[in-house]
Amino acid sequence: MASLNRYKFTFGNKALTLTTNHDNLFMEEVERVAKQMPEADDETIAILLAVNSLSMQLNREIEFDDKEKELDDFRRKALDDLKDKSSK
């Protein structure tokens, strides 16, 4: 079972404790984003955090797709090289 971290921080006017499998560095980044706009209301900060999370996830999926394509190209080339060697 994965170990869980408890992280306490303030979001707007609320003191929160999150239990997560992410390390504190990740949670500190979430808190940093929330503190960058002290004049923003809680809803605006929550929306920005949600958009930021979606953006990060999309970037990870794009990177994963790129790596998958790179691996597929490598496999095709390796198979083609093997076919060429076996036909000689």
Helix-strand blueprint:
Layout: E1 5-11, E2 14-20, H1 24-35, H2 42-86
Antiparallel strand pairs: 1-2
Give an overview of the whole structure.
- The chain has 88 residues and is of the alpha+beta class.
- 65% of the residues lie in helices and 16% in strands.
- It has helices at residues 24-35, 42-86; strands at residues 5-11, 14-20.
- A two-stranded antiparallel ribbon has the order 1-2.
- Strand 1 and strand 2 (14-20) form a beta hairpin.
- The termini are far apart.
- The model has no long low-confidence stretch (mean pLDDT 82).
Low-confidence stretches: none
> Strand content of the residues, in percent?
15-25%
* Class based on secondary structure composition and strand pairing: alpha+beta
**Topology as H/E string?**
EEHH
Enumerate how many helices there are, as a single number.
Answer: 2
Task: Give the C-alpha Rg.
Answer: 22 Å
Q: What's the total number of strands?
A: 2
What is the arithmetic mean of pLDDT?
A: 82
Task: Please give a handful of descriptors for the protein shown.
88 residues, alpha+beta, two-stranded antiparallel sheet, 2 helices, 2 strands, 16% strand, elongated
Quick synopsis:
The protein is of the alpha+beta class.
